[in-house]
């Protein structure tokens, strides 16, 4: 199948590479000429386990190529995947400008039947809107399909190559058959392609992310209640997750969710509800609890120091919003570090992958270190914000040697409190 993928961000680059790996001829397109030049040189703009190797293999086998020439890509493809950013607008709604712009360009260059597949997260009714836009530009036949992505950052390649399900929203039998052909190699042992109408597919992505975000805010609110009444949230968590009706995914107390999906999609779904005169009490609470959780963690730090952290040096472990990615979009670390700086503290940071991204955000406001242990030097306290594997079994002797106040603020509840007590480390978690 001849395919083009417009947008070489996180979703587009993973999707294009994995589609090529299944034998398709894939052209990845981006209007950022510098980015395309780097991709052609094998320089990958994001960190995702397994992606760089897969790109090099498929480029070498001539199944994957990169260009900034959208006209060339469209005319040499039957299926055009749209995977551009849909950022949060000022009112919390989804900004569709990039999607609309790309689709208008595709319509100009279409010379025969095309399937336009939207992988960007968009509100219900977007496919309908795009269809109307294309019809105003061209008489060439086409279909618009919704194919939302459910990739987990840090496991995106595996998720794409071995999906638990693929959602295809199509109102056209012809387009449905083409999508079946594209995805059938991924489902040799089980049939987990789910077909539905376009609007339902558009809604499915928002509902899935909103529900997972709800689980995170719920367990964090329960953790805060446990903190007040003297219960242990870890024991409570084990007690509830053994119920198979509840399950154990996304029920770990911590500092809340971040990244490019959950915060944006919850806000967008609230906006959709408001525009359709529906109440969204639960979603609003999910959003509020998530933001409050960051402040509550900062409050724990302030309480330990009786409200005065001026001049204190905090060593930060982890900056990305989750492990196995360099993505810092909506990362809780940004809120926490800025709050510490506002109170006059000094901050030195380390993350296995997100240091370059952090420099763009904090510039010279913090000190950047090269390892998990060099960041501890001259520090008064250690703060764990992202649960990378290398922080799970640290050398506690080095911690005790370097951290002056022997205090460890853990936003991810990585350690047993009794164990830390035996280590003579003041351990403060969620």
Based on the model shown, name its key terms.
430 residues, alpha/beta, six-stranded parallel β-sheet, 14 strands, 44% helix, globular
Question: What can you tell me about this protein's structure?
Answer:
This protein has 430 residues and is an alpha/beta fold. It contains 16 helices and 14 strands. The protein has a six-stranded parallel β-sheet with strand order 3-2-1-4-5-6, with helices on both faces. α1 crosses α3 and α12 crosses α13.
Largest sheet: 6 strands, parallel
Computed structural class: alpha/beta
Write down the overall mean pLDDT: 95
Share of β-strand residues: 5-15%
Number of strands: 14
Rounded to an integer in angstroms, the radius of gyration calculated over CA atoms is 23 Å
N-C termini distance: 50 Å
The side-by-side strand order for the widest beta sheet comes to: 3-2-1-4-5-6
Question: Can you give the helix content as a percent range?
Answer: 40-55%
- Number of helices in the DSSP assignment: 16
State the assembly state of the protein chains: single chain
């Amino acid at each position: 199948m001849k395919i083009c993928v417009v947008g070489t961000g996180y979703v587009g680059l993973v999707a294009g590479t994995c589609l090529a790996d299944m034998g398709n001829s894939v052209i990845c397109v981006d209007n950022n000429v510098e980015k395309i030049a780097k991709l052609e040189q094998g320089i990958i703009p994001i960190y995702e386990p397994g992606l760089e190797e897969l790109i090099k293999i498929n480029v070498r086998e001539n199944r994957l190529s990169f260009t900034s020439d959208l006209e060339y890509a469209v005319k040499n493809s039957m299926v055009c995947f749209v995977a551009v950013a849909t950022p949060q607008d000022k009112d919390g709604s989804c900004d569709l400008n990039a999607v609309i712009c790309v689709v208008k360009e595709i319509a100009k260059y279409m010379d025969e039947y095309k399937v336009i597949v939207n992988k960007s997260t968009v509100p219900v009714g977007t496919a309908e809107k795009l269809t109307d836009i294309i019809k105003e530009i061209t008489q060439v036949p086409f279909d618009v399909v919704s194919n939302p992505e459910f990739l987990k950052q840090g496991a995106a390649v595996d998720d794409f190559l071995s999906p638990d399900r693929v959602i295809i929203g199509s109102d056209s039998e012809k387009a449905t058959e083409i999508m079946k052909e594209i995805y059938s190699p991924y489902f040799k042992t089980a049939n987990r392609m789910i077909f539905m109408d376009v609007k339902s597919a558009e809604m499915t992505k928002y509902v899935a992310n909103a529900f997972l975000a709800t689980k995170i805010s719920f367990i964090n609110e329960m953790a805060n209640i446990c903190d007040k009444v003297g219960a242990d949230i870890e024991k409570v968590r084990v007690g509830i997750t053994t119920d198979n009706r509840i399950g154990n995914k996304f029920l770990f107390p911590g500092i809340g969710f971040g990244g490019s999906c959950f915060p944006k999609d919850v806000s967008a779904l609230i906006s959709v509800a408001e525009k359709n005169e529906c109440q969204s009490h639960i979603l609003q609470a999910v959003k509020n609890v998530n933001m409050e959780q960051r402040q509550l963690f900062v409050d724990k730090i302030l309480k330990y120091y009786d409200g005065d952290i001026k001049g204190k040096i905090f060593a930060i472990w982890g900056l990305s919003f989750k492990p196995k990615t360099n993505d810092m979009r909506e990362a809780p670390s940004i809120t926490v570090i800025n709050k510490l700086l506002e109170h006059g503290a000094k901050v030195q940071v380390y993350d296995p992958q997100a240091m370059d991204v952090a420099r763009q955000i904090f510039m010279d406001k913090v000190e950047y270190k090269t390892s998990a242990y060099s960041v501890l030097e001259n520090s008064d306290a250690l703060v764990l914000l992202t649960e990378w594997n290398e922080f799970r079994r640290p050398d506690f002797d080095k911690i005790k040697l370097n951290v002056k106040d022997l205090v460890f603020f853990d936003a991810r509840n990585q350690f047993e409190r009794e164990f830390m007590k035996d280590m003579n480390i003041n351990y403060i978690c969620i």
